[in-house]
Amino acid sequence: MALLLVFLAGCATQSGLRSSSRNSYANRHIIIDGTKRSDVALTAMGLLGTRYRYGGSSPNTGFDCSGFIQYVFENAADAQLPHNTAEIAQISRPVSRSKLSVGDFVFFNTLNSSYSHMGIYIGDGQFINAPSSGGHVRIDALSSPYFAKRYEGARTLF
Description:
alpha+beta, 6 helices, six-stranded antiparallel β-sheet, endopeptidase fold (from Nostoc punctiforme), two-stranded antiparallel ribbon, globular, disordered N terminus
């Protein structure tokens, strides 16, 4: 049972962050030039099919959801983000679902814990993410029964 919970935890990881580096993101909002939105989406789309790996942050070894976000934003927008969904939520700003734009974050409560999963909105009600259950980076719909029930909100760095 404990192994199953670790596997399902997926994106709630703080893997790769030391205590001192986690604190460096506290009370800091990152703002990225809006012209980078398409670069973020294209970089994310280029990673479709990359395998899932708990704690992963590289296309060579695999991604968990926050490692995927971290990698995409570092490579597409030169932004250094934490490898933790809740910390990414802290450094981003809320955006209403009706105002979602390409490159914004969508957050989900998948473990009875706020901000336990996230993805990158790519338009038309779809987002790209690294879910543990799918085994690879994929596109999902916000309206899918699983994600619609667990949708927690959207945030942006743009």
